[in-house]
Amino acid sequence: MPYSSTEDLPDNVKSVLPDHAQDIYKEAFNSAYDEYKHKADRRGDESQEEVAHKVAWAAVKKKYEKGDDDRWHPAHR
After folding, report:
1. What does the pLDDT look like over 58-70, one tens digit per residue?
2. What is the pTM of this model?
3. What CATH number should be reported for the domain whose range is 11-69?
4. Segment (H or E) for 28
């Protein structure tokens, strides 16, 4: 289900992402959750929620990269 605030994000997301990345994750998740609500719009047997999480992580990876400390930091590209 869509997230109304970053406070509602899963702990495994909140514990590793900085605030701005959490905002990106939430917005991407909510958008994808709406976009892929119909099974015909998704590939394979993935659920609407699984697809939305994948899209959200992909959005985060455009601006952040995972560091050696297992936390996410702004990407230097």
Report:
1. 999 999 999 998 8
2. 0.92
3. 1.10.1740.70
4. helix 19-35
